[in-house]
Amino acid sequence: MKKQREDLRNHLNIVDTNINLLYLMHIHDSAFPMGSYTHSFGMETYIQSDKISKKEDLLNFCQSYIKENLVYNDAIIVKEAFNLCQEKNWRKLIELESIYEAMKVASESRDASRMIGKQFLKGILPVSPFDDLQYWANKVKNNEAKGQYSIVYSIYAVNMGFDLRTTIMTFMYSSVVSLIHNGIRAIPLGQNAGIEIIHQLIPLIGECVEEAEKKSLQDLSNHSIGLEIASMKHRFLGSRLFIS
């Protein structure tokens, strides 16, 4: 395994950024074991109450999720974590994760992003040459950090040499695409509906990335009150497809 990490480290030193993009695509492949397919972050509550029952409903939900949840919450955390990782300011990064945890009022959603982050670490560490990821994994193991996915993702992106915009954009895109795939299964809808929704959301994601880049921790807020309530209610559903 040590040799494998050294080989990848040497490879990254000589290839251009376009090749490195393949590594980024790899972690967003459906075969990469992060467990995002098991989480709806409260969306299942809306589906079971028939508030999301057709393609247009799912599209509207995802638009709100991007504009009200990702932009003012996760994307800001990704941006701040990215900058702190560049500075290797681990103490501040732990503080940032604590703030992020406090923003996630519903325990199911908070635990879900922890699960995804820890699973991501478990999947990427065997093939990753980065000391920063191993350092953070040790912090998580020793209960000094929680393993929140937005933090882990930023650490990985910095070490891969991606810029801030690419990092925020791919995080937002992958977050909403996971929700769409899960919504298609739960409603259910056809695969073409999912393709159409993603296609319609791409321009919005681009606009919201630009907006998120301009924000700081002072803008951090939780606008998704309905989603938080839905996440709290989720554990009391009679039957569930998803953990959150």
Question: What would a concise description of this structure say?
Answer:
With 244 residues, this protein is mainly alpha-helical. It has helices at 2-14, 17-27, 43-48, 55-87, 90-103, 107-124, 131-141, 149-160, 164-186, 191-213, 225-234. Helix 4 crosses helix 8 (149-160), helix 4 (55-87) packs antiparallel against helix 9 (164-186) and helix 6 (107-124) packs parallel to helix 8 (149-160).
Write up this protein:
It is a single chain. This protein is an all-alpha fold and 244 residues long. The protein has one domain: Orthogonal Bundle (Urease accessory protein UreF), CATH 1.10.4190. The protein has eleven helices and no strands. The chain has helices spanning 2-14, 17-27, 43-48, 55-87, 90-103, 107-124, 131-141, 149-160, 164-186, 191-213, 225-234. The two termini are 34 Å apart. The model has no long low-confidence stretch (mean pLDDT 89). Keywords: Chaperone, Cytoplasm, Nickel insertion. It comes from Niallia nealsonii. This is Urease accessory protein UreF. UreD, UreF and UreG form a complex that acts as a GTP-hydrolysis-dependent molecular chaperone, activating the urease apoprotein by helping to assemble the nickel containing metallocenter of UreC. The UreE protein probably delivers the nickel. One of its GO terms (cellular component) is cytoplasm.
